Amino acid sequence: MNSAKQGPSHSQTPSQGHSSPEKGSSIDPADVARFSAIAAEWWDPAGKFRPLHKFNPVRLTFIRERVLAHFSLNAGDPHPFKGLRFLDIGCGGGLLCEPMTRLGADVLGADASERNITTASVHAAEQDLTIDYRATTAEALAEAGERFDVILNMEVIEHVANRDQFLKDCASMLKPGGIMFVATLNRTLKAHALAIIGAEYVLGWLPRGTHQWSQFVTIAEMEAGLAESKLKLLELTGVSYSPFTDKWSLSKDTDVNYMAVAEKPAS
After folding, report:
1. Which of 222, 149, 184, 168 is nearest to 59 (CA)?
2. Which of 43, 26, 35, 37 is nearest to 5 (CA)?
3. Average pLDDT over residues 228-244
4. Mean pLDDT on 194-205
5. What is the pLDDT of residue 214?
6. Percent of the chain with pLDDT over 70
7. Alpha-carbon distance 157 to 49, whole Å?
8. Which ranges in 76-229 belong to alpha helices (H)?
């Protein structure tokens, strides 16, 4: 019943009432402005990003376990990701960047919102963490020739102007054998009912207008986009919320939230 927004680094083709992205850019200025306005609340577990704080444990565990397995790392090592370079695209306030850094990864957190980057940078400094935060875009990083072992593309793809090109830009930055995580919302009637009507209008978990149902991504579209980007889909799983336990967990139900892992073949 949540869309667990990661950050408005990019935005999909604007629906009615949205500002148009700049030519050649995947950025929607209206999307960036909306999340910039509440940037200071990223680290408040009881604030506007409360649903994301609730959602974070399941995706952190998912990322950690899949990275450990994929790169055959030692789970008992307190810093198992040492030597791996991560990109968190659409990093928001850094809710994924900080845990990955603590696990030893060299992390670049990118977001189009200067205010998000400022919030993330200040919080990281308070925690005595070194994270490379940049107010930039996927296309700019790709053009600069940046390369990563792991890319976290979490709750961003439903906000980009050109989904297939965005995936290609991200895929181009993966090193051979690297993996990319993608989390998004399925374009189903169930997702409309729970993630928009329920989460935004009934429960007030998210600000109204956070998402447009037309921007949600079907599994077929996701699979096609990954294939077009020359990535191999390794895993796709649903993520479901239980109102009885007030927790999120991996699920076979992909009708609302789902996560995928894709690999760039080594050859």
Report:
1. 184
2. 35
3. 91
4. 51
5. 63
6. 76
7. 18
8. 97-102, 114-126, 138-143, 163-172, 189-191, 219-228
Quote the CA–CA distance of 123 and 95 in Å, as a whole number. 10
Can you tell me the distance from the alpha carbon of 16 to that of 5, in angstroms, rounded to the nearest whole number? 21
pTM of the model: 0.81
Residue with tokens 């077009």: 228
- Only one residue has tokens 């009507």, namely 197
Residue 191 has pLDDT above 80, yes or no: no
CA distance 170 to 147: 9
199 confidence band (pLDDT: 50, 70, 90): low
131 neighbors 107 (Cβ within 8 angstroms): yes
Strands annotated E in 143-263: 148-154, 174-185, 232-242, 247-251, 257-263
162 half-sphere exposure, CB direction, 13 A CA radius:
15
Which helix or strand (DSSP H or E) is residue 88 part of?
A: strand 85-89
Which tokens is 89 given?
């695209």
Tokens of 32: 């960036």
Distance, in Å, from the CA atom of 163 to the CA atom of 160, rounded to the nearest integer, reads 6
Tokens for 248? 């999120």
Q: Is 209 left (phi over 0), alpha (psi -120 to 50) or beta?
A: left
pLDDT at 13 over 50: no
Spatial separation of the C-alpha atoms in residues 87 and 64, rounded to whole Å: 14
SS3 243: coil
Q: Where are the alpha helices (DSSP H) in 7-151?
A: 29-36, 50-70, 97-102, 114-126, 138-143
State the first-to-last Cα distance of the chain, in angstroms, to the nearest integer.
Answer: 40
